[in-house]
Amino acid sequence: MMKLTPREKWSLIFEGVVTIVLLLLLNLSLVVILNDLLHSNPGIAGGVYMIKRSLVIGGRYIWSYQNIFIAVMILIDCAVLYWRLIRRYHLYQMNHIIDELHYISDGHLEHRISFKLNHRLQRVVDSVNSLVDSATQSMNDERQAERSKDELITNVSHDIRTPLTSIIGYLGLIENNQYQTDEDLVKYSHIAYLKATQMKSLVEDLFEYLKMRGTEAELTINEINFSQMLEQLAASYELEASRKQLTITSTTVPDNIMMEADAEKLGRVFNNLISNALKYGENATFIELNAKLKGNEVIVRVSNDGREIPTAALNQLFERFYRVEESRSKETGGTGLGLAIAQSIVERHGGYIFAESDENLTSFVIHLPIHHDQPLQQP
């Protein structure tokens, strides 16, 4: 509850005393006027006397007009006194709210109005707190977006500068005829080509990531046979998997799962996950794509039995440019954007994605709604 200051308490007491004095003077004035009226009008006095005689119980009159008048005036006086005091009290409450608002507006955005008031003013307090929460959240989001943009520029600059430096270096050797044999020329040209390809991959992934994160990204939603899509994806990677001595399989329960989705974008998600398993699933012997229909959602697991991902890295996997092992990622040509793109596409479909890993199995788990207009809530 809101606590009044000593000054406000004394002000309320003074208000009550003044109100009582004024009411007593008013009551006395009315009594005098009524007495004069009855004495100067015998007809009215006689009528009051006849009414009084008609209301007799046990030989006693149960009322007199003076008693009735006093009782009524006491009730009215109490109502007026209460109204005056509660009105003044609400005014003090409003002043306290205004003081709190001034305190918050001075830069104390972490402060909230904590006291409890009557129903109407409590709605004002709750609205003010909600407004401050919303404004604070918006400011934090804006700061985070600014930091995120700066980090993005820094990371892109770093990731582009590295291959670009190599390209310029090797092309510089060729330009200045600093090679001895044709084999050296072919070697330098090939390295420059690989680095240029790496840059192209980074730029394409970056463009795809920004497009999926932007509000203008649109999905082409159609009804697709999700089971067939997973089967086709597994088949398309069989040759590459066999070269790495891996088996890749897909199973769905039931056999034909129909859902609403953008097949092209969803295919990009699983392409990224399968490619990651092939690149980084060290010592793995299989990759499994398993999907199960549960209620109004499809739960998909892309699993492999490769080396365990450290627990500390699991929550960071979907951050852009994050690599579990920087050196190994560079060797395999990873841009660090694949999982961030996958997460953005899954979220655009109204679902969510996370990773699990132990010494036996590493899985990327995706929850997707059957109907695109019924997004899921991440637990």
UniProtKB/TrEMBL annotation:
* Membrane topology designation: Multi-pass membrane protein
Its chief place of residence is membrane
Under catalytic activity, the entry for this protein gives:
ATP + protein L-histidine = ADP + protein N-phospho-L-histidine
Key word Metal-binding present in the record?
A: no
Q: Name one GO molecular function term.
A: phosphorelay sensor kinase activity
Q: Which CDD domains match?
A: HATPase, HisKA
Where exactly are the transmembrane stretches of this chain? 12-34, 62-85
SUPFAM superfamilies from the xrefs? ATPase domain of HSP90 chaperone/DNA topoisomerase II/histidine kinase (SSF55874), Homodimeric domain of signal transducing histidine kinase (SSF47384)
Which keywords does this chain's UniProt record carry?
Answer: ATP-binding, Cell membrane, Kinase, Membrane, Nucleotide-binding, Phosphoprotein, Transferase, Transmembrane, Transmembrane helix, Two-component regulatory system
Q: Which Pfam families match?
A: HATPase_c (PF02518), HisKA (PF00512)
What does the UniProt entry say about where the protein is found?
Cell membrane
EC code? 2.7.13.3
The chain's coiled-coil residues are: none
**Residue intervals of the Histidine kinase domain:** 155-372
Q: Which GO terms describe its cellular component?
A: plasma membrane
Identification of the protein by name: histidine kinase
Source organism per entry reads Furfurilactobacillus rossiae DSM 15814
Q: Mind giving the lineage of the organism this protein is from?
A: Bacteria, Bacillati, Bacillota, Bacilli, Lactobacillales
